[in-house]
Specification:
Elements lengths: L3 H12 L3 H9 L9 E5 L15 E7 L4 E10 L7 H16 L3 E6 L3 H7 L3 E2 L6 E2 L2 E3 L10 H6 L1 H11 L5 H12 L4 H14 L2 H13 L6 H25 L6 H9 L3 H11 L15
Parallel strand pairs: 3-4, 4-7
Antiparallel strand pairs: 1-2, 2-3, 5-6
């Protein structure tokens, strides 16, 4: 079962189709052909590989008005040792090359330097002279993004940067750069990327970033405001439960669930006042009167 980190990394490459080419060229020093569009295409290789085997992401670089494939990249996120991969990776490349009739590269992405070394091992194909050496993007190859403008131009890269370097001394600066980029992201991407960045930072950097988000700092964005609102809602819901428990009242499961699920600050304020007066926790939901 793919992990949350695995799926998050896959989404970065899907959300920014140019990311594979950027990492190949900028991080790994590979020469990528000029292209007019990068397109994520179907990665189902069921014609050759069993149905539970498919590449994580396949990106095709297109050129000219006729959108001719200039190069394809099979992107594989690898977070643990899998003895099957040296056998299936060559199949992914062969099938993708056959489908799109263009040079095809393998880019393996990992967050661990030991895994990067494992993924970089030469794969001997058995045929005389035939080998495959995966191109591997490990944490050492990911750029450290601390500039606001760079983060705004490539938000997926700053998220990668946080995942690779968030535990280092640069973690706080990377987090601040992400906040600048977050303002311009859609709500869904902002939430997913924000969780990834926060979970990747060292404790000190995470505390600093959370404080900035709660205070609004200079990023007066919906991202910061929604973060603050969520914190207030959770605190008030917990306050209702705490008052009832402090008074020794038994809290039925349906009452606890209803309180903790509320997103209405006014409702929670009324419940806090009522929780100090009622004699049975069930009375809390009987009326919303003050």
């Amino acid at each position: 079962m793919p992990s949350v980190t695995h799926e998050a990394l896959v989404e970065l490459f899907k959300n920014r189709p140019t990311l594979a080419a950027e990492m190949l060229q900028d991080a790994l020093g590979q020469r990528v052909p000029a292209f007019t569009e990068a397109r994520v295409v179907a990665s189902d290789l069921a014609e050759i590989v069993p149905s539970d085997r498919r590449a994580d992401v396949v990106v095709v670089l297109l050129v000219g008005e006729q959108q001719r494939p200039a190069m394809a990249t099979v992107v594989e996120v690898q977070l643990g040792v899998d003895p099957d991969k040296p056998y299936v990776w060559p199949v992914y490349l062969a099938q993708t090359r056959a489908q799109h009739r263009c040079p095809t590269w393998l880019l393996v992405v990992t967050t661990d330097q030991d895994m990067a070394r494992w993924c970089s091992r030469v794969i001997a194909m058995g045929h005389p002279g035939a080998t495959l050496t995966p191109l591997v993007l490990g944490p050492e190859g990911v750029p450290v993004v601390t500039g606001a403008e760079q983060a705004k131009a490539a938000p997926e890269v700053v998220v990668l940067s946080a995942m690779a370097h968030g535990q280092s001394a640069a973690g706080e600066a990377i987090g601040v750069a992400f906040l600048a980029a977050a303002v311009e992201l859609g709500e869904e991407r902002r939430a997913v990327y924000g969780d990834l960045v926060l979970s990747s930072l060292n404790e000190a950097a995470r505390r600093t970033l959370e404080a900035m988000m709660k205070a609004g700092y200079q990023f007066q964005s919906e991202f910061a405001r929604s973060y603050v609102a969520k914190g207030k809602i959770e605190a008030k819901a917990q306050a209702v439960v705490a008052v009832l428990e402090a008074r020794g009242l038994e809290i039925p499961a349906e009452v606890r669930e209803r309180v903790l699920a509320s997103t209405d600050l006014d409702e929670l304020d009324r419940w806090i006042r009522r929780s100090a007066l009622i004699s049975d926790a069930r009375e809390l939901l009987a009326t919303t009167a003050s």
